Amino acid sequence: MLWLVPGWAQDQLRLKNGEVKSGTAVKFDPATQSLTFKFDQGTLSYTQADIAEVTLKERPGVAEGRKALEEGNMEQVVAKWQEPVGQYLGVDNPWVLECAGGLGQAYLALGKVADAETLYGKMRQFYSSGPAALRAEVGLAVATSGKDASGLLTKLQGLEGRLKESLRPLRADREALAEFYFARGEAYEKKGDGKKALEDYLRVSVLYPDPPSLGQRSAKKAEALRQANKDLVTD
């Protein structure tokens, strides 16, 4: 496997029975809903039912893909994130979900709608509940709406009841909120409603700046709207 290199910092697996194991996560198998871990003594697979938490070190290419997404270099995003997403999609881990969401956005930007729909469909299958499931639904809403901004806004409105906003939301909830408001901001921008688009982009960049690539993109979009319309203000 590409990631099994000398000196690689170990991943960590915490099982529901309280046991903690350190090794290298190799791949998530969607057919068996299990994650394969490599240890010095050999390789073992653990089902989702047995896993309480997985901590994965960022893989090579993740940071480069993040920078590419911030800069709008979507071909590079696909080149850097396609493989780690293929290996770890199904694991509830911050950088895995960041890469999955960003890869879907890159597919859409490149006109690869079918690839985006397939990816978000897998996300919905693997993450059946919680913030990750909401991120999958937001991605599918964007992918299946095409240029229909009004249709996208209607779909997003239907997801509002699942948003978990609070004074101190958990990281997973913050990231789901970021993807929701970013998608809604883009829809408003397509409709020509710069004020509402700016409000959503600022909401992401100021309140929910994670994942980092999305926070940076939102800040840039907000600045671009302000430059295009000096009189644009928010409530």
Secondary-structure topology with pairs:
Layout: E1 11-15, E2 20-29, E3 34-39, E4 42-47, E5 51-55, H1 62-71, H2 74-88, H3 94-109, H4 113-126, H5 130-145, H6 149-157, H7 171-191, H8 194-207, H9 212-228
Antiparallel strand pairs: 1-2, 1-5, 2-3, 3-4
Helix pairs in contact: 1-2, 1-3, 1-9, 2-3, 3-4, 3-5, 4-5, 5-6, 5-7, 6-7, 7-8, 8-9
Radius of gyration: 18 Å
How many domains? The number is 2
Structural class of the secondary elements?
A: alpha+beta
- Please state the second-level CATH architecture of the largest domain: Alpha Horseshoe
- Give the integer mean of the pLDDT values: 91
- Amount of helix: 55-70%
Q: Any idea of the CATH topology of the largest domain?
A: Serine Threonine Protein Phosphatase 5, Tetratricopeptide repeat
Order of helices and strands: EEEEEHHHHHHHHH
Shape: elongated
Number of distinct beta strands: 5
The DSSP helix count reads 9
What would you give as the CATH superfamily of the largest domain?
Answer: Tetratricopeptide repeat domain
Widest sheet: strand order? 4-3-2-1-5
Are there runs of 5+ residues with pLDDT below 50, and where?
1-8
Calculate the terminal CA-CA distance, rounded to whole Å. 52 Å
Reading off the top of the CATH hierarchy, the class of the largest domain is best stated as: Mainly Alpha
